[in-house]
Amino acid sequence: MDIQWHKSSKSSNAAGSDCLELAEHDGQILMRESDNPDVVIRTTRAQLRAFLDGAKQGEFDNLA
Questions:
Q1: How high is the pLDDT of residue 54?
Q2: Please, are residues 31 and 25 in contact by the beta-carbon 8 Å criterion?
Q3: CA 9 from chain center: how many Å?
């Protein structure tokens, strides 16, 4: 399966090992950590949007 992964320009180190990568495949959003690429989380656009909206509102600040 040919998946085009995208990572944030905000990655915290030059090697790119501190980043979350995203891709779209078969109507799903895929997420993985660049330093552990074999573990892939699958979600929907709606679920990702709900998470991002919550993150923007600070709902998860206590975890960072």
A1: 97
A2: no
A3: 12
Averaged over successive runs of 10 residues, the pLDDT of the chain (64 residues) comes to 84 69 95 91 97 96 92
Residue 51 tokens read as 């998470």
Strand partners for 21: 7, 32
What confidence score (pLDDT) does residue 55 get? 94
d(CA 18, CA 59): 22
The CA-CA-CA angle for residues 23, 27, 28, to 5°, reads 50
CB 22 within 8 A of CB 30: yes
